[in-house]
Design brief:
about 150 residues, mainly beta, 10-stranded antiparallel sheet, 2 helices
């Protein structure tokens, strides 16, 4: 479940300095967008990805308005051997910060790692739940509020 709460400006050095002690890991995503759908590349293998689209929910966490997106990217288990023509490659770098094991703040950068494309909170334990259920636990809300107070 992705939780969008705040749009970060790319050059916010003060925020980056505050978040540095909470750095968790770097993730890399290599995808192909085609007229026939989305493909994920992992270990030189190509897999088709289906998108389970769910309407977003708007709510509040403390004094912050948030948008909860419970849509999921579901990778098919069998490898695909043909890629449709006119595919557009997308290589993204994700810098992940974590306060606890419940919630991550993910910053998504372009392939050069310089331009910020997106940022959101991700709750793995809430993935697969309905967006109307909101955020599952008080710990997740507390983590998000702690991060938002850095801004």
């Amino acid at each position: 479940m992705r939780i969008y709460a705040y749009s970060i400006k790319d050059g916010n050095i003060e925020l980056k300095n505050k978040l540095e002690p909470y750095f968790y890991e770097m993730r890399y995503s290599n995808r192909l967008w085609t007229p026939e759908g989305l493909f994920q590349i992992e270990n030189n293998k190509i897999f088709r990805v289906k998108i389970k689209d769910v309407p977003v929910t708007k709510t509040m966490i403390g004094a912050f308005p948030v948008t909860i997106d419970a849509s999921e990217f579901v990778q098919e288990p069998e490898e695909s051997y043909q890629v449709p023509p006119q595919s557009q490659p997308e290589y993204l770098i994700q810098k992940v910060y974590r306060l606890s094991s419940h919630t991550e703040w993910v910053f998504v950068y372009d392939s050069s790692g310089e331009m910020l494309i997106d940022n959101y909170f991700y709750s793995a334990s809430a993935a697969g739940t309905s967006a109307s259920a909101g955020i599952c636990t008080a710990e997740q809300k507390a983590d998000i509020l702690k991060f938002l107070n850095f801004i």
